C-alpha cells in the first residue's frame, strides 16, 4: 500500500527535540525489555539492556542467533508486532523519550532520523514494485519535492552505493538484481532521507565473502561521509573487528560485555566473548584444523537457568555462577564492563578454569579440543 504524501520540508529534529543538548548521546537505552507472550509463557527476547551511542560512532552488537540482537534494534525503532508483546524500559533519541511511542508517532522518524538495513533484501524489498519506486517513495512521503527531482535523487543514491547504470536499474525489479546489488539498493533506501542513526541487521547474510567485504566497506564509507551513528548487528566478531568503535556482546537477551573494540579483542573478560573469539577461523591454522565450538545450546528464554545464563556452557563455571546472576562490573578501564564472577585473565578465572579442567568438565574439553587438534596437525 502506498503511503500518502506529506506536504512538508525536510524533518527538523530541533522542532521535535528542542531540549536535546549538543553533547548528549544520540541514543540512550535504559533497562530495555521486550517479552513475547506465547502459549508456553513469556519469551524474554530482550531482558534489561542498557547502552548508549554517540553521534558518528559505530556500535557492534554481537552474539549467537537468538540472543536478542535483532529484537533489540527493532524495539528501539518501534518495529514490533502489535499484539502479544510487552515492552518496557527507556529509549531516548536526542534526549527525547520515545520508548512508549506508537507507530503514528514514530513514523516521522523512520527514514529521516533512524533507518534499518534488513537482513534479507529479497524479502525486505517489494517484489512487485520497481527499484525506482521503492527509493523515491520515502522521499516523496517525507519531503515536498517533485517526482522528477526524487528520481534524480534516486539515481544519485544508486551511484553513491556503487550500482552501475543507475538509470536502467530504476526500472528493474528486485528479482532482476544479484544479492549484492539488492543489498546495495536496501542501503540506498535506508540513507535516502539522511538519517542520523542507521541499524544494519546482519547486512551480509547469504552473500559470498567478496561481496560481504564490499557491503561492509560501503556501510562504513556512508557512515563516515554522512556522520551517522550506526549499530551493526552480527553474529561474527570478525565482521566488527575493524569496523566498529565499541562492541556490546549479548547473550540470552542481556548485554554480558561492553568495551571499546580494541579493548575487547585484547582483553576479553566474559567467557562467552572468549568462546566467540575462539570460534573465528584463523588464517594461520593448518588445513583441516577443526573449528572451535561452544559446548551446549543457548538457553530456553521462557525458562532460563538460574544464576548466570551462560553457566551451563561455561568453562569457568563455579557454584556461585549457578545461583547468582552477575551484574555488569566495570574493569579498571571504566569503559569496559562485563558480567562474570570469574573473569577471563584474572587469578580467580584461572583458578576456576584449572579446577574444572581437573574435574573433566565438558565445556573445558570443548575449549581445549580445537587447540589439541591444531597442535597435533592433520596431514
Explained architecture:
The chain is α/β, with parallel strands linked by helices. The chain folds into 2 domains: 13-251, P-loop containing nucleotide triphosphate hydrolases (Rossmann fold, 3-Layer(aba) Sandwich), CATH 3.40.50.300; 268-376, no CATH class. Helices cover 34% and strands 19% of the residues. It has 14 helices and 12 strands. The protein has helices at 13-16, 69-77, 103-106, 121-124, 131-142, 147-160, 166-169, 179-191, 209-226, 237-240, 261-266, 271-278, 347-359, 362-376; strands at residues 27-38, 41-53, 58-62, 85-93, 96-97, 114-117, 197-201, 229-234, 246-251, 254-260, 329-330, 337-338. The strands form 2 sheets. Strands 6-7-8-3-9-10-12-11 form an 8-stranded mixed sheet. The protein has a 4-stranded antiparallel sheet with strand order 2-1-4-5. Strand 1 (27-38) and strand 2 (41-53) form a beta hairpin. Helix 5 (131-142) crosses helix 6, helix 6 (147-160) packs across helix 8 and helix 8 runs parallel beside helix 9. The termini are far apart. The model is unreliable at 1-15 and 372-379 (pLDDT under 50).
